[in-house]
Design goal:
single chain, 460 residues, mainly alpha, Amino acid/polyamine transporter I, 16 helices
C-alpha cells in the first residue's frame, strides 16, 4: 500500500484533543480549549490506535458469514483487496486536502462541490453511523436475549443463566441497556472524556479474538473441525447474485474516512499519516482475516449473520460453556463502550445539518439534550424493528458507506479542482465508482429478490 507524497501542513496543530467529528470545526470556545489542557500533537502509536478503533466495530461480527457466502479463499482475498482499495481512497482524500488546504472531509467536499457536497457528506455520515449503532444494539440484544435463525432459537446469556422471563426479553433488555449505559455515556460533551472506555473496549475486542482462535485451534487438534469451502457454492443465477450481498458488509467494515482528517490534524508530525494509515489497515485486516477464518472454521455452514449468536452451542471442549460466555460478554461489552464514540460525530453532524448557523452544540444544553434523546430513541426503535445485522449492513453498506469510502473520493478526484490527478488516479476512480455502483445495485436486487421469494413461498 502506498499513500503517496503528502506535504506537511504549515498550519498550527489543533489543541482541542481528540475530536472525531469533521463538521462545524469550532466546536469549543477558547475557555473550553483551555480546560482541556495543552496538547502538543498526537503520537504515531496514538494515531494508529484511534484510526484502528474507528475501523474495527460491529462489522467484524458479520465477516464469518461472508466466508459462508464467498468461501474461505475468495473471502480472504476480498478482505485484503478491500483494504488496498480503502487505502487508495484515503490517499486521494488526503492529497486533495493538502492541495485545497482543507482539514476535514466536509470541508473537502465543500471545496469540490460547494454547499451541496458538504450536505451530502453530512447526510452520509448520519445514515452510516445510525446504521452502525443500530447494528451494535442488535448484536447486544442477540448476546443478552438471544436470536432466532431458520426457525432455530439461540439462547442469550440471561436466558441461559436465569431461564426465560419477561425481564430478559429483547425489548426490555435493550431498554435497560440504553437507559443505564448508552444514555449516560452519550451525554459527555467532549470525546476526550471517553478515552478510558475506548481503551478498555479495544482490550475486550482482543479478548474475544484470542478466545475464538484458542477454541478453534483446540477443536482442530482434536479433529472436530470439518474442511471449509474455499470457493463459493454457485448453482444458479440466484446463488451467483447472492455473492454480491457480501460487498456492502466488506465496505462497511473498513469505513473510517470521516475520522482520518481529524487524526491527521492532531499528529505531532503530519508526514507520519501514511504510516498511520498503513499500520491501521494492516492491523485491522489481520484481525478481520483471523476472525473470519477461525469463526467460519468453528461453525462452518451453521455460521449465523451475527457470529456471536453461535456461541450458545456445545463446543465439545473443556470449559466450553464458560468460554462461550466469555466470548459473548467481552464483545458485547466492547460494543457498549464503542457506542458513544460513534454516536459523538453522528450528533454533531446532524446538528450541523439542521442548525448550521446556531451556536456550538456544547453551549446549548436544551438542544444538546433534545438531539441526544431523539437520536438514541431512533436507534433503539431501529434495533427492535430490523431482524438481523446482515439486513442493516446491506442498507448502510450499499448507500452511505459506499459513498463515504469510494464514490465521494473518486468524484473529488475526477473533478480535479486543483489539477493534481494523474491519468492512473482517474482510471482507478472510474474503476471504484463502477465497482461500487454495480456491485451494490446487484446486492440490493439480490436481497429484494430473496425477500420476495421468501414472502411469496407457501407456508406449511
Amino acid at each position: 500500500m502506498t499513500i503517496g507524497n503528502l506535504a506537511p501542513k504549515k498550519e498550527n496543530k489543533s489543541r482541542r484533543g481528540k475530536q472525531v467529528v469533521d463538521e462545524k470545526a469550532p466546536l469549543l470556545p477558547r475557555r473550553h480549549e483551555e480546560e482541556v489542557g495543552e496538547f502538543n500533537g498526537a503520537s504515531f502509536t496514538g494515531a494508529v490506535f484511534n484510526l484502528s478503533t474507528t475501523i474495527v466495530g460491529a462489522g467484524i461480527m458479520a465477516l464469518p458469514a461472508t466466508m459462508k457466502v464467498l468461501g474461505l479463499g475468495l473471502g480472504i482475498a476480498m478482505i485484503i483487496f478491500m483494504a488496498f482499495l480503502t487505502e487508495s481512497s484515503i490517499e486521494l482524500l488526503l492529497r486533495f486536502s493538502r492541495a485545497g488546504k482543507t482539514h476535514s472531509y466536509g470541508a473537502l467536499m465543500g471545496d469540490a462541490f460547494g454547499k451541496v457536497g458538504r450536505i451530502l457528506l453530512q447526510i452520509s455520515v448520519m445514515v452510516n453511523n445510525i446504521g452502525v449503532l443500530i447494528v451494535y444494539m442488535i448484536i447486544i440484544g442477540d448476546v443478552l436475549s438471544g436470536t432466532s435463525s431458520s426457525g432455530v432459537h439461540h439462547a442469550g446469556l440471561l436466558e441461559g443463566w436465569f431461564g426465560a422471563h419477561w425481564w430478559n426479553g429483547r425489548t426490555f433488555v435493550l431498554l435497560v441497556t440504553t437507559l443505564a449505559i448508552f444514555s449516560p455515556l452519550a451525554c459527555f460533551k467532549r470525546i476526550d472524556s471517553l478515552s478510558f472506555t475506548s481503551g478498555l473496549s479495544v482490550g475486550l475486542a482482543l479478548v474475544f479474538l484470542i478466545i475464538t482462535v484458542g477454541i478453534t485451534i483446540m477443536k482442530l487438534i482434536s479433529g472436530n473441525v470439518a474442511m471449509p469451502r474455499l470457493l463459493p457454492n454457485v448453482t444458479d443465477l440466484s446463488s451467483l447474485l447472492s455473492l454480491f450481498t457480501a460487498v456492502p458488509v466488506l465496505v462497511t467494515a473498513y469505513i473510517c474516512h470521516y475520522n482520518v482528517h481529524t487524526i491527521d490534524n492532531e499528529l505531532e508530525d503530519s508526514t507520519q499519516i501514511k504510516g498511520v494509515v498503513r499500520a491501521s489497515l494492516a492491523l485491522c485486516s489481520s484481525v478481520y482475516v483471523l476472525t473470519s477464518v477461525f469463526g467460519f472454521l468453528l461453525f462452518g455452514e451453521s455460521t449465523l449473520d451475527d457470529v456471536l449468536a453461535n456461541f450458545d452451542t456445545d463446543l465439545g471442549i473443556p470449559y466450553g460453556s464458560l468460554l462461550n460466555d466469555a466470548v459473548r460478554v467481552s464483545y458485547a461489552a466492547h460494543l457498549m463502550l464503542v457506542f458513544p464514540i460513534v454516536f459523538f460525530p453522528l450528533r454533531l453532524n446532524i446538528d450541523g445539518l439542521l442548525f448550521p448557523s446556531a451556536k456550538p452544540l456544547v453551549l446549548d444544553n436544551k438542544r444538546f439534550a433534545l438531539m441526544t434523546t431523539v437520536l438514541i430513541t431512533m436507534i433503539f426503535l431501529g434495533a427492535n424493528c430490523i431482524p438481523s445485522i446482515w439486513d442493516a449492513f446491506q442498507f448502510t453498506g450499499a448507500t452511505a458507506a459506499v459513498c463515504l469510502g469510494f464514490i465521494f473520493p473518486a468524484a473529488i478526484t475526477l473533478g480535479d479542482r486543483h489539477n493534481i490527478a494523474t491519468k492512473r488516479d482517474k482510471m482507478l476512480c472510474v474503476f471504484m465508482i463502477v465497482l461500487a455502483v454495480s456491485s451494490n445495485l446487484i446486492a440490493i436486487y439480490s436481497d429484494a429478490y430473496a425477500l420476495f421469494k421468501r414472502n411469496s413461498s407457501p407456508r406449511e
